[in-house]
Structure formats: structure tokens, C-alpha cells
Predict the structure.
Amino acid sequence: VQLQASGGGSVQVGGSLRLSCAASGIILSVFRTSMGWYRQAPGKEREFVAEITDTNRNYADFVKGRFIISRDNTKRRVYLQMNGLKPEDTAVYYCRSTVMDSWGQGTLVTVSS
């Protein structure tokens, strides 16, 4: 399984970004079971951000109401729409196939005030 994250960049407080994760070498059933986004801020441990399963979307409390996870099964892509960005959202964002325990290379998001 290969996961390629993209879409990161630098934005100001309150701005928006849309991250994309392209998955290859993964069968549809595994892709649909669970895909997630995580992040790691400088000097901190990697933490869960959001997950999309076959039936649910789950979010960390600190992004509820601001971030939306979605996917395109045909394209094997997972998206993270990030709105209302805050400086504390600054981190490298990673996508993950939960079932395969595979990680992408990460994409950097920087939010400045």
C-alpha cells in the first residue's frame, strides 16, 4: 500500500485548506473499512485527527465542527477539508490505512496569525 498526501501549505488564521491522500495498491474493501488522518506538531507526538469508515466519520474533539473527512472510492482518495484553521493546527498531516497500518509521507500545514 502506498499513500501520498498533498495539499498542505501556509495559511493565515481562519483560513482553509483541503488535504488529499491518494491510495494505491489497496483493494476497495480495505480502503472503505477505515482511512484516517493524523498529525504531528513540532515536539509533540502524533495524534488522531479524523477517520472515515464504511459507516461513520469520527473526529478528534479539537477539530469537530471545523474539519470534514470524505473520500472518493473510485479514485481511492481521502480528503480532509480544514476550515477555521488555528495556529495550533500547525503540524505535518499524515494519512493512514488503519487496516494495513500504512502511513503516507505527510504534508505540512502552517497556520500563522
